[in-house]
Design a protein that fits this description.
Strand content: over 45%
Shape: globular
Helix content: under 10%
Number of strands: 11
Largest sheet: 7 strands, mixed
Distance between the termini: 40 Å
Structural class: mainly beta
């Protein structure tokens, strides 16, 4: 069974930083892509950033480019970890952030989410 567990959310003032972590585990689980999505109150879930296992290519939503950085550890065992370093946070970044993993461009596995609140 695949499990994604996020951590690192919290309350921060505008201009501050937070680092989210996501630990993925599961028997023979080796996703080719991991990423972060977010959902603000009353809005649809949106893509934030992703990273490919092979080559480490990264992709970002325009709204976070230059402020957020995604990275990952490709462990040799079944545990994979992805991080989201968030700098220069804005109130509009307030949302529940979800870790996701999958194959190709399809995210099939999701975490429970972690709340990020940015105060003005």
């Amino acid at each position: 069974q695949v499990q994604l567990v996020e951590s690192g959310g919290g309350l921060v003032q505008a201009g501050g930083s937070l680092r989210l972590s996501c630990a993925a585990s599961g028997r023979a689980f080796s996703p080719s892509v991991m990423g972060w999505f977010r959902q603000a109150p009353g809005k649809e879930r949106e893509f934030v950033a992703s990273i490919k296992r092979s080559g480490g290519s990264t992709y970002y939503a325009n709204s976070v480019k230059g402020r957020f950085t995604i990275s990952r550890d490709n462990a040799k065992n079944t545990v994979n970890t992805v991080y989201l370093q968030m700098n220069s946070l804005k109130p509009e970044d307030t949302a529940v952030y979800y870790c996701a993993a999958g194959v190709g461009n399809t995210f099939s596995y999701w975490g429970q989410g972690t709340q990020v609140t940015v105060s003005s």
